[in-house]
């Protein structure tokens, strides 16, 4: 009598459990695979609750600073271009406050999603892309407060602003992270011109300058020591002459 399929699978599973072979763990592996998320890449794109809280806090701060600066600037500009400066200042504050919040939130979410997906820190180029996307997203907000037909130009303009600002920040950050060597003198090269009253020194040049000053001080100390010895010799000669004159005066005539 030939065993059926169920009987054969049961015997194979019992042999796997008794011998510790991979056949006994096959079902456990299959069950573990079922527990994994269906799309790990999509799960990595979702930020945690703590990260969302940090993004909201930082975005609120950026929006508040941008809105406050826009209110101050709008008050001065509104006096010139608007019959109601107060309303113009309030509208400017709301507009740039919302744009600042939107820019920081989208940029932070884009950079965070990229870093979670690639398991590394974002490169300067990736940050430029994220900033340009966030800036372009501010374009529709700006067009809503002005004229709607300006939406496409606003998207392009603010996207360019975001990319340019991030590029400038990357350049400044890269220069500040350079060591104090000849490579780091590039940003202060204008100080080395003949018209500049100051000059940038490297660590080696500064050490050489200090050594020269130390040698000069040691030479001056040596000259002072020689002068002291000369004065002491003169003092001894004067004392000897005085003693000889005293002895001559005390001799009987």
Task: Write a structural description.
The chain has 253 residues and is mainly alpha-helical. The chain is built from 8 helices and no strands. Helix 1 packs across helix 2, helix 4 (49-81) runs antiparallel to helix 5 (85-118) and helix 6 (124-145) runs antiparallel to helix 7. The protein starts with a helix and ends with a helix.
Rounded to the nearest angstrom, the distance between the terminal CA atoms is 161 Å
Q: Which regions have little confidence, pLDDT < 50, spanning 5+ residues?
A: 1-6, 18-38
Shape label: elongated
Structural category: mainly alpha
> What's the total count of β strands?
0
Q: What is the number of helical segments per DSSP (H or I, 4+ residues)?
A: 8
Radius of gyration: 41 Å
Would you tell me the overall average pLDDT?
77
Largest sheet: none
- Provide the helix percentage: over 70%
Beta-strand residue fraction: under 5%
> H/E order of the elements?
HHHHHHHH
């Amino acid at each position: 009598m030939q065993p059926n399929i169920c009987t054969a699978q049961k015997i194979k599973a019992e042999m796997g459990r008794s011998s510790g072979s991979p056949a006994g763990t096959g079902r456990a592996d299959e069950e573990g695979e079922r527990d994994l998320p269906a799309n790990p890449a999509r799960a990595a794109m979702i930020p945690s609750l703590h990260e969302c809280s940090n993004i909201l806090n930082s975005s609120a701060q950026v929006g508040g600073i941008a809105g406050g600066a826009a209110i101050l600037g709008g008050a001065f500009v509104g006096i010139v271009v608007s019959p109601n400066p107060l309303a113009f200042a309030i509208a400017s504050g709301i507009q740039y406050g919302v744009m600042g919040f939107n820019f920081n939130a989208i940029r932070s979410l884009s950079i965070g999603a990229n870093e979670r997906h690639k398991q590394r820190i974002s490169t300067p180029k990736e940050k430029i892309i994220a900033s340009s996307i966030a800036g372009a997203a501010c374009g529709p907000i700006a067009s809503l407060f002005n004229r709607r037909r300006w939406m496409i130009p606003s998207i392009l303009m603010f996207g360019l602003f975001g990319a340019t600002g991030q590029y400038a920040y990357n350049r400044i950050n890269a220069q500040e992270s350079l060591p104090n060597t000849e490579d780091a003198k590039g940003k202060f090269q204008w100080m080395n011109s003949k018209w500049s009253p100051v000059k940038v020194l490297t660590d080696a040049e500064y050490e050489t300058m200090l050594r020269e000053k130390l040698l000069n001080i040691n030479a001056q100390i040596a000259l002072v020591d020689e002068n002291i010895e000369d004065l002491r010799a003169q003092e001894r000669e004067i004392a000897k002459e005085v003693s000889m004159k005293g002895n001559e005066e005390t001799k009987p005539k």
